[in-house]
């Protein structure tokens, strides 16, 4: 599939750790499977994977908010 964001190149399906930062703290969400664009870095995730990433981001935010 051609990247819908930049339209430049073909997406690569793989699992990678997704970096995430919130209020100057950063973490990474391990082994996120999706279609990644080597040109612009955007990623298309499956619905289940997307839900897992959202939940992980939310948990990280709550953890930061709880300690600040
Ligand atoms: Zn792209």
UniProtKB/TrEMBL annotation:
Entries under InterPro entries matching the protein: MqsA/HigA-2 (IPR032758), Znf_MqsA-type (IPR022453)
Taxonomy, superkingdom: Bacteria
Name of the featured protein: Type II toxin-antitoxin system MqsA family antitoxin
Source organism phylogeny: Bacteria, Pseudomonadati, Pseudomonadota, Gammaproteobacteria, Pseudomonadales
